[in-house]
Amino acid sequence: MDWVYKKFEELSPDELYGILQLRSAVFVVEQNCVFLDQDDKDQLCHHLFCIDNGKFIACSRIVPPGISYGETSIGRVVTSTTRRNEGIGKILMEKSIEAAYDLHGQSPLRIGAQLYLKRFYESFGFEQSGEVYIEDDIPHIEMVLRNHVK
Predict the structure, then answer these.
(1) SS (H, E, C) the chain
(2) How far is CA 103 from CA 27, 58, 107, in A?
(3) pLDDT on residue 36
(4) In which band, very low, low, confident or very high, does the pLDDT at 87 lie, cut at 50, 70 and 90?
(5) Which of 10, 41, 119, 145 is deepest in the core (most CB within 10 A)?
(6) Phi and psi, residue 141, nearest 5°
(7) CA atoms within 13 A on the CB side of 115
(8) String of b and e for 53-76 (b: at least 16 CB within 10 Å)?
(9) How many Å separate Cα 107 from the centre of its chain?
(10) Cα–Cα nearest to 7, from 51, 52, 54, 42
(11) Model-level pTM?
(12) pLDDT tens by residue, 8-40
């Protein structure tokens, strides 16, 4: 498995295609959610992704402060349906948190998480910071990581 971390403008066309294809496969097809994934934030972000045997199996984007929230954020966190329950999502989040801190310092991180993943994000130290809200017909919560301990 190869983990790659790049600014948007450094992505090759094939890398960008692989990231968007993976996000579409999970967020649009698997979750049956019609929404516009290309939200004009990708160009402002760094992207972390994992390729295994030529297939994109996981990715996230590190969103600078002031774009989605006042704090740095990690978004579009996704693991391929074919590679779930292998611990790749855990590795992806650890690497995403590390990348966010490398880029923007050890400041709090805020995410908008799908409610069913609350325990997953709590395992990294994220805490719920608001009420449940509906986004694209899916229950979400905001969560904040103030003190990350590996």
Answers:
(1) CEEEEEEHHHCCHHHHHHHHHHHHHHHHHHCCCCCCCCCCCHHHCEEEEEEECCEEEEEEEEECCCCCCCCEEEEEEEECHHHCCCCHHHHHHHHHHHHHHHHHCCCCEEEEEEHHHHHHHHCCCCEECCCCEEECCEEEEEEEECCCCC
(2) 26, 20, 10
(3) 85
(4) very high
(5) 145
(6) -140, 150
(7) 11
(8) eeebbbbbbbbbbeebbebbbbbb
(9) 17
(10) 42
(11) 0.94
(12) 999 999 999 999 999 999 999 988 888 888 999
Longest dimension (CA), the chain: 41
Distance CA 122, CA 51 (A): 26
Amino acid at 94: E
In this predicted structure, the answer to whether residue 149 has a pLDDT above a threshold of 90 is no
Which one, of 64, 55, 124, lies nearest residue 89 by Cα?
A: 124
pLDDT at residue 150 tops 60:
no
pLDDT at 34: 84
Residue type, 101: Y
